[in-house]
Amino acid sequence: MKANLLSVITFLFHLCSCGNVEEDRDASESSRTPLDVSLDITNINPLTTNEYTDVMYGAFHTSFFPKNHPFGKITDGKEEIWTHVGDERCTVVFLNYKEGVSRLNLHILSSTGSEIRYYERKAEDNSGWKSVQERPLSQSSEISDGTVGESDVTSDDSVREERKSQPPAPSKRRLNLLSVISRGSRSNSYHSERQFEEVPPQTPVGATTLSILDLTHPDASICTAIDVNITGILSRVYIIRPKTEVKMIISGNYEIWEGAPKERCTFCISFFKNGKQNMVLLRTKASFKLCYKFYKFKENPTNCVFTKKTGWYLSTKKYIEKINKLRIGTVARVSLDISSENEDIDKYVLTVDAVGGLVTRYYATRNGFVIGQVSYEHEIIWEGKANQACFLAELHLNEDIALLKLYLRQSELFSSCCFKKREDEWKKIDYKTFDRLLDKALVL
User: Sorted alphabetically, which keywords does the UniProt record give (predicted)?
Assistant: First the structure.
């Protein structure tokens, strides 16, 4: 009996200390270094690659995501398409096929920067794959710990889960909106050490597209990503662009969420711990049903088979307590006058964007400050309750319209409220009206 018990204990210890069963079955895969992993687009290895296929607008679309290590080599059977040079690595591959033409988009990262490399093969051409374009991504955008990124519509309904650098001395700065419009570019008024890469738009503004949102490398055609300090918690808000349907959320090599048929993500916030994404709040929509989901990143450094694998997991209990544990410092309230283009970078950061003839200002709180009152000159537009605060204000302007959306937190609830300026007075509107008016303004 003692011998049998000792054997069982020894066996369990071996499992926890030596890795999981899948790794033991394929020692060659587990011993690979990151740059040894190859992707053959004609023969997918399920141990190293996740494959997703869809059909949109008469074209076949396939996405390849590495599971544990990025790709160091891409092949089509025996034909070599791309192989890494130095520390280059491929983090995702998109394959499109339509009317006899196949096209590959490789997302390449290295210590020197990021880029998308494009390859093409025509059915009538026997010469194989050809490099047709190499376009660098925008350089890493330096965003302060208090800048907010573009986020999707949050409804007026209260949102529940369904369930680094030190700033310089406070200063004032005036932005020239006309110059921003003429450049058609984005302006960040304050920079800090923390960075994230924003991919330039890959689809025309106004065109409906089904998309995969990578929270670590947000595509500017899918969303605007802005860092913000939400009641003392370093966060990033992703504002989904109009006519964009996000069907999957990933963070680097890890999948967070994949929507069911007719389900899409319309809003996302990620919360940071020690500079890394630790928690994510999503709002999804299917038909007329809104759902709020909260995910937490969990690590399994020992690869023990009795614990969950490293990755993102849906959390259903005490999520607000987990968020509050990320708080740094104290929280203080500040007033915001959106009629002014001045900013106090010790309290909030102003980011200006110009898309489709519409100028957008994002006021993002930082350093533990929250917005307790929003005004336009002498008119008070919104004033928060004792336990309610605004962490991001989104203001859209052109010659004909002014639209305002405030992103709010009240205890464990996340919500938003929307306003439109009618003549000389600001009036509250529902989020559906806000979306409709914003969409119309962008089309114009």
Answer: Signal
- Strands (E) across 287-424 are located at 289-298, 311-315, 332-337, 348-355, 358-365, 369-376, 379-383, 388-397, 402-410, 413-422
Same-domain status, 183 and 65: no
Tokens for 208, please give them: 């409906």
Q: Number of structural domains, the chain?
A: 3
Q: What six digits make up the tokens of 287?
A: 């038909």
d(CA 288, CA 394): 25
Residues 274 and 353 both lie in one domain: yes
- Nearest-Å Rg of the Cα atoms of the chain is 24
Give dist(CA 403, CA 396) in Å, integer: 5
Q: How far is CA 36 from CA 17, 66, 68, in A?
A: 24, 12, 12
Distance, in Å, from the CA atom of 364 to the CA atom of 388, rounded to the nearest integer, reads: 16
Span 327-386, pLDDT tens digits: 877 788 999 999 887 777 788 888 888 776 788 899 999 878 999 999 998 899 999 988
pLDDT tens column, 84-140: 998 888 888 888 877 778 888 888 888 787 788 889 988 777 788 999 864 433 333
Distance of CA 19 to the CA centre of its chain: 31
- Quote the DSSP letter at residue 262: T
Going by C-alpha positions, the residue among 318, 234, 297 that lies closest to residue 269 is 234
Task: Specify whether 57 is located in the same domain as 3.
Answer: no
Q: Which of 50-54, 208-212, 352-356 has the highest mean pLDDT?
A: 352-356
Bridge-based pairing of strands 332-337 and 223-230 is unpaired
Mean pLDDT, the chain, whole residue set = 73
Q: What are the C-alpha distances in Å from 151 to residues 211, 270, 360?
A: 15, 11, 13
Domain of residue 95 covers: 32-136
38 and 26 within one domain:
no
293 and 361 share one domain = yes
Both 109 and 231 in a single domain?
no
Let me know whether 212 and 129 are in one domain.
Answer: no
Q: Judge residue 16's burial from the number of C-beta atoms within 10 Å of its C-beta, 0-12 exposed, 13-18 middle, 19 or more buried.
A: middle
Query: 265 and 117 in one domain?
Result: no
Where is the domain boundary, 121, 136, 151? Answer: 136
Strand order of the sheet with strand 79-83? 38-40, 73-76, 79-83
pLDDT at 183 over 90: no
